[in-house]
Each structure stands twice: as structure tokens, then as C-alpha cells.
Amino acid sequence: MRCAQFRTALSARLDGEPGGLPTARVDKHLARCAGCRDWRDRAGGLRARTRATDADGPSTEWSAGLWARLEQAGPAGEVNPVGAVSEADAVGQADQVDQADQVGSAGPAPEGPTAAQR
After folding, report:
1. pTM for the whole thing?
2. How far apart are CA 116 and CA 8, in angstroms?
3. What are phi and psi of 46, to 5 degrees?
4. pLDDT tens for residues 59-97?
5. CA–CA separation, 78 vs 113, rounded Å?
6. CA geometry: angle at 79 spanning 78 and 83, to 5°?
7. Who wins on pLDDT, 2 or 60?
8. What 3 state SS string does the chain have?
């Protein structure tokens, strides 16, 4: 068996998952293989550092304040705190765009040469 297979089992062990190999077999390999012991120690250290930074995310108070500001902004601030647009809003916005396009096309012709004339 290759070290890669044992390291996969060790990775699963670090994650608290079944490793797919008998524990005794992995432990026997660790006793004989300095490379896999080093790998296990480094992987365990990385896992510990990664878990320590997981707790550094935004606090509950910060998150609550953000949601409050988003809710205050409402549609006028073009922020929808739940991330959804109602069908009526979408249709209304599309109608506004259509009306703006119609007004723009009915206006006077632009002055100066067109792109085709240049």
C-alpha cells in the first residue's frame, strides 16, 4: 500500500470520518513511516489553525446591524434584504425600460454624422 492511501485515511481521521482502512493498520504504518507521521502532524496543525480562524467571523451584533441597515434602505436604496424581486416589481421595471426606449426613439435625430457616415 502507498503512503497516499494512508494519508487519505489520516485526513479522514482528522475530520472525524471513517478512513476506509482499519485503525490498527494505519497506526502500524505510522509507527514505521516518518513521512506520514510528519504529514499527520502538519495536517493536524493546519486543521487547528483553520478552526481557530473560523471563530473570527462577524459577530452576531455586527450581522444584526447589517441586516437592520439593509432593511432600512429598502427599495429606494435598491437593496432587497431577502434577495428576491416580486413579479409585479419586475414587470413594472420592464415597463419603465420599454417606455424609456419608446421616448428615446421618438425624439429628434442626433446632430452630426452617424457612425455609418464616419
Report:
1. 0.44
2. 65
3. -65, -45
4. 778 788 888 888 777 665 554 545 555 555 555 555 665
5. 38
6. 125
7. 2
8. CCHHHHHHHHHHHHCCCCCCCCHHHHHHHHHHCHHHHHHHHHHHHHHHHHHHHHCCCCCHHHHHHHHHHHHHHCHHHCCCCCCCCCHHHHHHHHHHHHHHHHHHHHCCCCCCCCCCCC
**Residues ≥6 apart with Cβ < 8 Å to 58:** 66
Q: For the beta carbon of residue 92, count every other beta carbon within 10 angstroms.
A: 11
Is the pLDDT at 38 greater than 80, yes or no?
Answer: yes
Alpha-carbon distance of 51 to 97, in angstroms, equals 49
Residue 48: all three cell numbers together = 487547528
Distance CA 114, CA 118 (A): 7
